[in-house]
Amino acid sequence: MSTALFNLHDVREIIDAVKTPLGLAALALAVMAISFAAIISARRQNKVVQDISKYCFIIGLVFGVLSISSYVYEKINPDYVKISGLVVDQKTGGAVDFANVSIVGGPQRDADGGKFEFLLPRAEFANGVDIHVSDTAYVSQSVRLNEGDAKALVIRLEPKLNEKSIIDRIDFINVGHWIGLPFIFIDLKFYNKNDQSIKISSISISVKSANSNNNIKDLGYPKQVAIQPPQAGPEIRLRMNAQIALQASFFQPSDEFLLFATQVNDWVLRHPVPLDAQRETDRISPSLTAALQASARKNFFWMEGDYVLALKFTCDDKDRAYQIKFSLTKEQIGRMKGNVPFYRYGFGVLDTMIFAAPAPDSGIVRVDNVVFEEAQ
Known about the structure:
By secondary structure, this protein is an alpha+beta fold. The protein has three domains: 8-76; 80-157, Immunoglobulin-like, CATH 2.60.40; 167-374, Immunoglobulin-like (Sandwich), CATH 2.60.40. It is built from six helices and 18 strands. The strands form four sheets. Strands 10, 11, 13, 15, 16 and 18 form a six-stranded antiparallel β-sheet that branches. A five-stranded antiparallel β-sheet has the order 12-14-9-8-17. Helix 2 (21-42) runs antiparallel to helix 3 (47-76). The protein starts with 7 loop residues before the first helix and ends with a strand. Residues 1-15 and 353-358 have low confidence and may be disordered.
């Protein structure tokens, strides 16, 4: 397998080296050497080539002298001091590109590739100078530099902890069941109040009954997600002071559920009867309907009482956790169980669209008494 002679990092290092006085001097000497060789060769060729080579030799000589003079001037000139350095991330060690570096009371510039350089009058070092470094994603830092200190610095910035919430509010929550197993549909608004953008790579949720430690269900990752305004890619990008609407449905199937799904889909393929809104035509066989109803009653998750949803976000800066508390009444439990008698028509078994909003006998209810807070 072949490899390139130079990668982008190599090229950048060469450019940085050439920008120094010694680097320019070396480049000038190379130009002189090539021009000299061309002059010798051009003696046996036309005069135009020889003249051009002579001019290149002279230009290279001038640049070489100036570059060496600049280098000597920097080294021996007692009136000026060069300060250079690199700004890096304290955790990763990577360069902090375009961090703002300033001499307090003096010049400032952005650290291109994390690198910076100043040429300051030595008189300013009588009492030392303060170097201030800042970046929106990092904690600002000041460094005191005195006359005898090293002038090549490595300044390590600590990343900011984005402590402010990224959720503005919960608009509503629908809870229901699919053959007894819990289903949750959540509508929320993100609002990033931090000083930098945040990316969310994954969302997960679990639900726990406050009345029973054993009644816990991990619903995993969302099965369906809708974002407004729409975004491309798998991540959710939260820009500063921008609102994003999220609608997501959560459901974790069991092995028994997956087996039933296969049996139901197989039956419907072999007996294609349309979903009958008037509920006059059976869509599922009596024996399969009975098995579905028995499973729903046996595995029914919800009961009257209080619940806690644990909502977790995996973000590029840190993980975030929130709690959503609500309660269900006896009447709401009855409404959720109300779709079980209608399994024979396919309602609550095949029609997944019923989970988008509550409807009569859909097996889903809207939760109104929601308490939202960050997890401790």
